[in-house]
Design brief:
Length: 126
């Protein structure tokens, strides 16, 4: 039972990948990151398996693309703040804190997920 004045949507999912894709699309919409469908596909794999040389190879094999194209997409993800330089080794990248929060949310113990979204009025008008 929902409280009066609370808006909710129910979105079914069948696989963990479906849930990741839905959350990434929602994140993209709310945070205006301009994430493309191809980038969402890459991020889904990175969230599910972690970001590493092996997952980049998996992406390459799964989509039948070359290493240069993977590099172009990863550069775009870095530019958008979704892949970040490792603090100790700038040759390494990792998922942003927002993406790690999404990963932790999906990997939570319950199959039914509730996503709170807080709309905060910005008093610093431009």
């Amino acid at each position: 039972m929902l409280k009066e004045g609370i808006f909710s949507l129910e979105t079914p999912y069948k696989t963990e990948s479906d849930l990741y894709k839905s959350l990434l699309k929602c994140y993209n919409l709310i945070c205006s990151k301009n994430i493309t469908d191809r980038e969402i596909e890459f991020l889904t794999i990175y969230l599910k398996y972690g970001y590493s040389r092996e997952t980049r190879k998996l992406v390459k094999e799964q989509y039948g693309i070359n290493s240069n194209y993977v590099g172009v997409i990863n550069h775009s993800l870095k530019t958008k703040g979704l892949l970040v330089d490792d603090e100790r080794n700038f040759n390494k990248k990792s998922l942003s804190s927002d993406l790690l929060d999404i990963k932790n949310f999906v990997e939570g113990s319950s199959n039914d997920k509730m996503l709170p979204i807080i709309f905060r009025y910005d008093t610093n008008k431009e």
